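We now fix the convention by which a protein and its fold are recorded. The integers have meaning only within a learned vocabulary of local backbone shapes. The record below shows the convention in full.
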Amino acid sequence: MAKMVADAINVGPTIMCGRARGHSSFTDVPQEKGGTDTAMLPPEMLCAALANCIGMVIALTCREEGIECAGMTVDVEAEPNEEQARLERFTVVVRMPCALSDEQRVKVEEAAKQSKVRGTVAAGTGLSLTIE
């Protein structure tokens, strides 16, 4: 797989537009923090990205294995650590639309482990920051 590349541009007083492969997503802050509250906070978007990524890899596996997944939900919670400026203790709950056999449950759990966002959050990673 090719390197992941994205950028972001300020499109409003507190609104950022993230862009990758011709797609866009927006973030903002609540009004009480000076924003317009027209989009998720970036940490909320991280939680949503984790939920989406896990859900997509499960859906792909379910399609290949003939497991029903329409209506599946993936809930993510994380605790903010303001002192360290990060999220901690991520909790993910996948709710399948129907009961799974033991074999199906193993396949779904293994699929979830293939999420690149899950793997990144679980392992932590290095980050290089340059201000130009």
Summary: The mean pLDDT is 92. The two ends are 29 Å apart (CA to CA). The chain has two domains: 1-39, 41-123.
